[in-house]
Amino acid sequence: MDITHLLDPLNDAQREAVSAPPGHMLIIAGAGSGKTRVLAHRIAWLLQVERFSPFSILAVTFTNKAASEMRGRIEELLENSPGGMWVGTFHGIAHRMLRSHWQEAGLPQGFQILDSEDQYRLVKRIIRELGLDEEKWPARQAQWFINARKDEGVRPSAVDDQGDQTTIVLLTIYQAYETACARGGMVDFAELLLRALELLRDNPVLQAHYRQRFQHILVDEFQDTNAIQYAWLRLLVGSGTASSGWLFVVGDDDQSIYGWRGARIENIQQFTRHYPDAKTIRLEQNYRSTGTILAASNAVIARNGSRLGKELWTRHGEGEPVYIYQAINDLDEAHFIVERISKWVDEGGLRSECAVLYRSNAQSRVLEEALLQRGMPYRVHGGLRFFERAEIRDAMAYLRLVNNRGDDAAFERVVNVPARGIGARTVEVVREFARESQLTLWQAAKELQQQQQRLSARAANALGGFLRLIDGLAEGVRDLELADQVEHIRLHSGLVAHFSKEKGEKAQARLDNLEELVNAARSFVADEEEGQEPLAGFLSHAALEAGEGQGDAWEDCVQLMTLHAAKGLEFPLVFLAGVEEGLFPHRMSAEDPVRLEEERRLCYVGMTRAMRVLYLTFAERRRLHGKDTYPRASRFIGEIPRGLVQEVRMRGAVSRPSTVVGTTPPPQGGLNPGQPVRHPIFGAGVVLALEGEGAQARVQVNFETGGCKWLMASLAGLQSL
Q1: Which one, of 190, 565, 115, lies nearest residue 381 by Cα?
Q2: Annotated catalytic, 255?
Q3: Looking at 500, 527, 545, which one is the last position of a domain?
Q4: 61 beta partners
Q5: Catalytic member of 14, 172, 223, 255
């Protein structure tokens, strides 16, 4: 058999990982080391060389995008699409199992997935129903508590409240939430994983079936797994040397940055203890960055203890130094970054090759203003995505209610959208009656509308109109194709007329999005193995896809994002903005050794996004959350060897510093950086920088209306304010 196409493109470490005999494997894959290639080639090797059936392979990723990319690479290597192989996210695979075994899982056949926002609304309603003070018991806190317990695999009855009143109340909310979900046939994201774990744990026959089926389980981004995900994997494969299948896990402990949302770095650190016969292979050759960027990144991450250990290297050459810029304030920092991006573009580069990364979302405002002043298009990653937009969520709620009248979250969302005279008091009466009678909101509304005792005639009529609308929509879509069902809902729910009343581009954008939803339905392909009706499948698909993919993602524009959002991406030119003590590392983490190590890993992730040029910037003064702060350079800057960095001075020259702290030019003409001034034409502004002496002295001013300008100090006519 010719296997050259599987091994020839690989380096020695990759080849060893791909062609290893079946067994437990830990692949420590450094940033830019080709982990996706290794996973795809490993699966192709198992199918073509080891002759395992596609039915015996399960590949788990964290995003639908990664799963899709892996499928595409496998098909390209095999020159066909292997049927029967499961490739998907943790939530997607769990959902697939629960759809197949809904009875064993104790779920209704048509159970509905609650996304994060619907879950929040349901928790908020329960807090009201329990008569709790919503300010003292905010829904977000209770939602976090519920999800955190589920991520640990713990039901309300298993939590020891230890007599703590806060825990007792949160457990009461948790229990009431569980009851409401069971009554409405609803499952949230955390419940998907917990219910799938319980399904295997409590059904020995099913557990044996899946252990026999999945002989090879491959896991991407293993360092990001939480407690329940790892427990589920161990149930599927068995424990230690007595396991019936093999785990092939790929990850990087140095890129574990999601501890705040439940990821456990201990999973990858302790893998070889749980599976003592596992083989460890390190992928250390980096295909992304220059030697200098990697040396700087290695030096920073080396300060962390308890590492599994690796040293990234490259054949790309040393490249440029890591540039450090000390700004006067956050405005100066933003304008410096924009100036450098402009220079990049002027020299033939693309705006989309430039990324600005920051620790806090609050930093983006000043950066966005600087880009707008320059007329430079940009995209903020992490903005509202398609299935998260209000108009899409409204349309999906109608579809969900048509599909499942017991969906309380969908009922609450659209009962008065568009407005139809059903006020908050009417909805509250429906909630109270539903709680007293142990009914869904739909059932309660139907009984109340018929009784006409607790409701006024006007309220009962309005409620009856809504019930008839939903029943009419359900009848109208009964024999239609999926896309036509969505189109029918779009046209007859009243949403088009509702959003048409808004003015300007926002209204048109909403209407365009509703039309795009029809296109999404038209392109949706149901999974035949799950056996769902097309509408139910589309609703599940939408819930699982929410939070991924955006429109206009590849326009030639500057990329802005948090450091967390940057993981997995790469750009030729990268700026890490606000690398300051208190901001990065964050003040909440600086004194906690465990959290400080995660902040350092976050810095490592940010630095290794850069392919050719890397800037770290910090400001002497920064305004955040309405307050001025005067930070010092982050310790992470000081951890980079001096021989690898160069400081960019204010006047644009680059020199090698003895320290990473810059100097401020002497004041010219009585002006100082940070000083408010007024110009006879441009109006009020703030001095950012000064350079030169005497008649040649120049001053840089950021004007409130005119943007950032360089002026001759002697001719500018600036007045101090």
Answers
A1: 565
A2: yes
A3: 545
A4: 89
A5: 255
Contact 120, 393 (CB under 8 A): no
What is the CATH classification number for the domain harbouring 123?
A: 1.10.10.160
| Among 151, 220, 224, 330, the one annotated catalytic | 220
Read off the DSSP letter of residue 480. S
Amino acid (1-letter code) at residue 367: L
Amino acid type, 41 = H
Q: 16, 36, 124, 201: which is the annotated catalytic residue?
A: 36
Residues 304/331, Cβ–Cβ less than 8 Å: no
Active site annotation includes 310: no
Spell out the residues 6+ positions from residue 592 whose beta carbon is closer than 8 angstroms to its own: none
Active site residue 282: no
Active site residue 220: yes
Residue 557 carries which side chain, given as an amino acid letter? C
Q: Are residues 585 and 615 in the same domain?
A: yes
- Parent domain of 158: 112-184
| Given 188, 198, 221, 253, the catalytic residue | 221
**Active-site residue, selected from the candidate residues 601, 609, 622, 635:** 609
532 given a catalytic annotation = no
Model confidence, pTM: 0.78
- Residues in the chain predicted with pLDDT less than 70, given as ranges, are 1-2, 240-242, 382-385, 452, 503-506, 527-531, 545-555, 624-627, 650-670, 692-696, 706-707
Is 36 annotated in the active site? Answer: yes
Residue 662 lies in a domain: no
Kindly state whether residues 423 and 438 are assigned to the same domain.
yes
What pLDDT is recorded for position 24?
Answer: 96
Give yes or no: residues 72 and 199 share one domain. yes
Q: Examine the domain organization and report whether 398 and 524 are in the same domain.
A: yes
Residues 376 and 393 in one domain: no
- Residue 343 domain-assigned (yes or no): yes
